[in-house]
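Tokens help. One example:
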Amino acid sequence: MEHHPAVVRLAEAANTTAQHQGSGDLLRIVLIVMVLGCVLTGWFLLRGYKRNDD
């Protein structure tokens, strides 16, 4: 199995960053993005159930 050079470089950069910072900041960002995505998805899906009694 042959690896793409860009993928190898990205993995090395991620590994180097993780060694210097730890995964705390990345995990925090991922969790915030997930929560915001869930809220926006819920709003988008539920807005169609609003009644217009004109």
